[in-house]
Design brief:
The chain is an alpha+beta fold and 54 residues long. It has one domain (13-53). Helices cover 13% and strands 19% of the residues. The chain is built from 1 helix and 4 strands. The strands form 2 sheets. The chain has a two-stranded antiparallel sheet. A two-stranded antiparallel ribbon has the order 3-4.
Length: 54
Amino acid sequence: MYNKRVSLEEGDFYFNEQGYRVFTEKYHLKRGYCCKSGCKHCPYGYDKKTDTFK
């Protein structure tokens, strides 16, 4: 389940002002799990500061 390769499609990410790729909620749901990196659009409710799910 983890580390499976998910092909990128339009709407899966965008580039922020600093030029970094930011994955969208759509991509995270397609991937199917939380990586616990504190992603901006995490649909799983992970809070990196407390290491818990909301």
